[in-house]
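Incident log entry.

Two folding requests arrived from the same account within the same minute. Monitoring flagged them as a possible duplicate submission, but the sequences differ. Recording both here for audit purposes.

Request one:
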Amino acid sequence: MRMLFRPMDRSRCSTRSRRSHGRLGSVLLALLLPPPAVGQPVLQPESFRHYVEEFNVGDEELYPQHIRNAEAWSFLAPNIPLFECPDTELERTYYFRWWTFRKHLKQTPDGFIVTEFLPPVPWAGKYNSINCPAAHHLYEGRWLHETKFLDDYSLFWFRHGGDPRRYSFWAADALWARHRVTPNPSLLTNLLPDLVANFEAWEQERRDPNGLFWQVDGQDGMEVSIGGSGYRATLNSYMFGDAVALARIATLAGQPDLADRFRAEATRIKQLVESRLWDESAQFFKVAPRTEDPSTPLHLADVRELHGFTPWYFHLPEPRFAVAWKQLVDPRGFRAPFGPTTAEQRHPGFAIAYEGHECQWNGPSWPYSTAITLTALANTLNDLADPPLTRQDYFDTLRAYALSHRLKRPDGTTVPWIDENLNPYTGDWIARTLLRQRQQKPVERGKDYNHSTFCDLIISGLVGLRPREDDVLEISPLVPEDLWDYFCLDQVHYHGRTVTILFDKTGERYGRGRGLQVRVDGRRVAGSDSLQRLTALLPGKQEP
């Protein structure tokens, strides 16, 4: 099989332009070169240019938008954090996902938006916008150095004709998550009345007298699910996340009464999710059909579905509920070679079907849900003193996700790829296969599908830059101990500074010393011999 990318090579040297050098060459280079100057970047963009060139060569550019392939590298080089590790699959997928994200930046008369599909689709709104993945766009795009794209996109949903309730959308939470990376108090406080009105509209349209929010599974972006429609842990968790964010934004805006209102609302939703959507016998959060009588006991679905992990995305559950995570690594539960399944495999309704609706959530793996699950797992591993899963479980799930980013063409060439849903056992992109068999337009509807995160999972999860609104820089790597001899995340724009996180087991690769280091504007602010949680005040801030 002819490959347009190289297999994993753990012996790559620090120059990256001459990958055949061995460990001895790296050591000699470190001895010969002078110590790096303070402020000098650790990684150089040119070392990663070859990825974008490979992506361009293997691509059929069907639906170009604001930044065409020919300009991809000149845009990405100054605009993204750089990432290096010994695992080429993870590293390549990281740059591939930035390359595809760039395709979805669309300039409109109302400013920039971020699209989900590149070709127009009939269920989209203004400018081919779809709010279903918009929170993923904000979580992923918050790491771009240029802020205009997401500034415009944030305003679009509430001021320029966006439809923020066509599908489920955790808007306030996502905007607050972005604020934690690139603080913008004026934007948030400006949008606060719109965000409050949005929350209240969800209450009027989708909240029953029992206090729970309900949603049609298709409007959750999860068609043909086994659990079906009703009171879903998804929308209720989104509303919890938005309530928490609204309380924080209200505090930022100097509106304590409004902050108290939404703190109370978050507490109410949390209690309802934990008490009414938790199945004690199955040890999992589930869907319940709607009921007209608020006092009627809910009859939870008889299936565990991957979206039952959504509450942890928002830090909602108490520690005792974490037992649910054992299902993620159980082969009878959700574990599969190319990403977690959307329904537990032991259930009789589980299916990988090549007939009927092309978008089914009764078994296939979906990047949308995988991304939520991995963010939720990173939160769990960071929040709990004794979590039920490990760093290795996070890494294995993330790497399976990375391995799904492939397509084998008829000529035998394998190229990086992201599409809609996939067969969790073979890696085949199911919707693409069905649409091509049916000759259904538009051509390559799901190519470069922008419905999930990946780069954010590397930055905030694996490498462990945990965004905060205060002046504390928190790093908590989920890289398993003794897995890698080195990794580096460089040129991260965070709170107006440039942050570097590196691990160098011997000190020879980067020439900055051994172990884990955190550097801000080129100066070391924290370090450790091992991969552990580190905190430091951002430079220029005084100790309390």
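Request two (distinct sequence, not a duplicate):
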Amino acid sequence: MNRMFRLMPAAVLFLALFTVFWAGCSNDEPVGPNGEGSAIDLMAIISNPLAPTPGQTTQLTAQVSGTGSGASYEWEVEGGTLSSNDDITVMWEAPTTPGIYRVFVRASVGTAVDTMSKYVMVRNVSIIDTGLRYTLYPNVIGSTLYFIGAALGMSDDNFLGFHAYSINDPSSPIDNISSITVDGGYEFTFYEEALLTSSITLGAERYRLQPMNVFVFPLLGGSAKAVSNNEHTGSLSTARMNQNLHPSASSDQSMVVWQHVKAGTARDGTDDLTNIKFRFGTTSTEVLTSSKDSTLYHGIYMYSYYRNIKPMITPDELAIVYFTDSTGTYEPCVIPLDGSEPVTTMQHAIMVDGNHGIFYYRGVTIGENTVFQWNPTIPTQVGFIDNQKNFCLFDYHAETIEIVSNVGRLDEFVWDETGKMAAVNESGVIVVTPGGEPDTVFVKERFSDDVIGLNWSPGTDNKRLGFRVVRKGSSVTESFSALVIYSPADGIWCYASPMIRPPMGNEPSLSYPLLRVAFDDSGGMYAPVPISGSGGSIKLYYSH
């Protein structure tokens, strides 16, 4: 009589139940006919660790189910050495050279046969010791690694943001200036030779709204520039300080535009003045907008306030784009640039009629947490994820807004140099050129899994896509992070690290670009990984 069987020892069963999806690399290839009276089904090859180091002894396990008895196995590996090749679990001494290697298993019972192969990445993984509690937002510029970090926990009363560092001197912040104390920041943009920040100055824990200013810090030596003239004053009675936020600069940082919030006397901020400011070089600051209107009603002036937010200098440096809620919905506005001079006489909101603009009629809503990323091949087009997780394309020159409907609801996205987009949606990771059909390159096993920190390697040769996957299991032993690298050239994704435990119970509340991975020229990948323990930390892992 035939009987049902699961060809997994008890010790392997526990592992397989929560690591089916974390087996190694993509490209399952089950083939082979089933014989009469017996059946066998190879479901996964599980590699433990997920990405072995060169020469490491690794356990390979076949996860199978079927009917019949007396199952047999035959393993083959593309490199390294098998201690045996005829059991459900075998030990594999991984090759001594980093790379991607194929492992193959043939399972049979009676006349039923099934085969499967997997790719496993052999990879060195180390932790970059910066001496900081949090290390994130890696940027490789030239051959130097830059990052931001902090020594204090984010829940500490004295935590006032992050500082920027170079790996060449991880104990001395780049973002310091002799004329005033910089206490930290949350907005950082790295250029080839400079760092643009919105930083807290003269901060204190007691403030409800910390004073913030815009700075340009040179990466290669030289004097820092205080762009916003250290406007840190405000109302002590309401504990609200002036803030200079969301800076955007030209490629050489000679032009800088930012959002200036002048604190009003109302405790809830309803009479704050929120305007767009601009500065070229060391010239005087220009205020480009107005955020206060008045109406004379029965001899009394009634005031209304609205906000002008998220200004950007366009990549072609021909305009400033920002957003205003004067009609009740944030709508895009454009100010042309004539060289280094904003042409305010041609300043306009992109309206459809006298009451509303193109965002309102398309149902697009944004806010100060919206991340805008310019298409590198279309300098007039910016992509963003709106408040409903729609992926949107706005062209300031054509004055159009499009919701891209075939990519799903997005959590994050990133462009490569060719205008191809990688994004995280409900199912996993997709790669798509806007206007084309998306290709799903990584599928989540569980709906609760997170994919975080998506980023492309630089250049166009040997292209790679990296990210971090987070499993939120029902217990500590089922929860972990793992790094992943995808190669578009051959359509293979592989784990680029072992399981990293224990993960934070909740991911830190940060703008997703700060958690992005970064590649160096040799193909190594830096990845910020939040880890639980001692109140939580973010370690910078290097997979190479």
